[in-house]
């Protein structure tokens, strides 16, 4: 089955708008609604209705008046900055010094079938060379009143494991290379020293790293289906407690149908995801 018509998608969006959270709503997603202005597959994230959001998630390189307002007033709510800690894109480098450490190109493709254009860092450079630059970036975000960062690309990818035997050996056993674990621990400790929080994006595999998995303040999952389908399997197996666990879902990608999304959410006892749409992200409740 594939999602073949716009009618099907429209129906999905409409049900998302009308459905309300009743019954078994997870405490975390209900307690910390997030507005993702940082990224989406549709490119329409800026249209997201941020009314009621406790966390504004933004890319510091993409201005948004809502973020500016929150930043200047600095009173309620969180502002979380998108930060890719494992890669740098030469077109969007948050610090030009990172360009000195481009290593292997990210071979993942976007929805247009094109490369994203970012490069991975050599795992051997993470703690000695990349970390000090990341600390400067995080400090600069703190000065801009950001209260949290999210760690995009926080673990070795195919491009890394194909070019580094140690990273591959760990990935083969569903572990994270200790160089990444140490690096992430250093980033968390530094952010916490500035009174900032850290969200881990795509926590699968990190659940097998007990020295660091519980140190994060929130978790993000990008899609239950296509790129990281196993991420949702870690939900509930962890002592996450009330920490936010936000799930962003792309409808229609890889043939995802309304029914499949609904069934998967019910099967996982997952009430709510944020659905990528032409109107930005909308809350979608399976029950
Ligand atoms: C589903 O999750 C809710 C909390 O969100 C919990 O109260 C309930 O026991 C869960 N049900 C199952 C079958 O795990
Ligand atoms: C700060 O908040 C007030 C009231 O919520 C709002 O009117 C004002 O525009 C905000 N400041 C900025 C710079 O957006
Ligand atoms: C950060 O917030 C404070 C108020 O808490 C405000 O005075 C300051 O201008 C803000 N900084 C920026 C860069 O918006």
Automatic annotation (TrEMBL):
**Could you name the domain of life of the organism this protein comes from?**
Eukaryota
| Alphabetical list of Pfam families matching this protein | Glyco_hydro_114 (PF03537)
Residue span of the signal peptide, if any?
A: 1-19
Q: Which UniProt keywords apply?
A: Signal
User: Does this entry carry the keyword Signal?
Assistant: yes
Q: Which residues form the Glycoside-hydrolase family GH114 TIM-barrel domain?
A: 71-227
Protein name as it appears in the record? Glycoside-hydrolase family GH114 TIM-barrel domain-containing protein
């Amino acid at each position: 089955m594939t999602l073949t018509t716009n009618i099907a998608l429209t129906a999905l969006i409409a049900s998302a708008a009308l459905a309300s959270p009743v019954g078994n709503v997870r405490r975390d997603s209900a307690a910390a609604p997030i507005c993702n202005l940082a990224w989406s597959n549709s490119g329409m994230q800026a249209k997201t209705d941020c009314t009621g959001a406790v966390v504004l998630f933004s890319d510091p390189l993409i201005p948004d008046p809502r973020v500016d307002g929150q930043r200047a007033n600095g009173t309620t709510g969180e502002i979380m900055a998108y930060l890719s800690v494992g890669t740098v894109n030469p077109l969007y480098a948050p610090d030009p010094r990172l360009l000195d450490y481009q290593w292997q190109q990210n071979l993942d493709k976007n929805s247009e079938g094109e490369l994203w254009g970012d490069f991975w860092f050599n795992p051997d450079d993470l703690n000695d060379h990349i970390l000090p630059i990341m600390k400067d970036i995080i400090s600069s975000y703190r000065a801009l009143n950001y209260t949290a960062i999210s760690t995009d690309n926080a673990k070795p990818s195919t491009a890394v494991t194909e070019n580094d035997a140690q990273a591959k050996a760990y990935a083969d056993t569903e572990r994270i290379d200790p160089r990444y674990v140490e690096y992430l621990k250093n980033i968390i400790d530094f952010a916490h020293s500035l009174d900032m929080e850290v969200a881990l994006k795509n926590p699968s595999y990190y659940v097998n790293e007990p020295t660091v998995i519980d140190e994060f303040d929130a978790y993000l999952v990008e899609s239950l289906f296509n790129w990281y389908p196993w991420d949702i399997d870690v939900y509930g197996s962890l002592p996450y407690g009330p920490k936010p666990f936000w799930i962003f879902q792309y409808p229609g990608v890889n043939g995802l149908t309304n029914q499949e999304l609904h069934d998967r959410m019910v099967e996982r006892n997952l009430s709510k995801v944020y659905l990528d749409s032409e109107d930005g992200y909308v809350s979608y409740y399976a029950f």
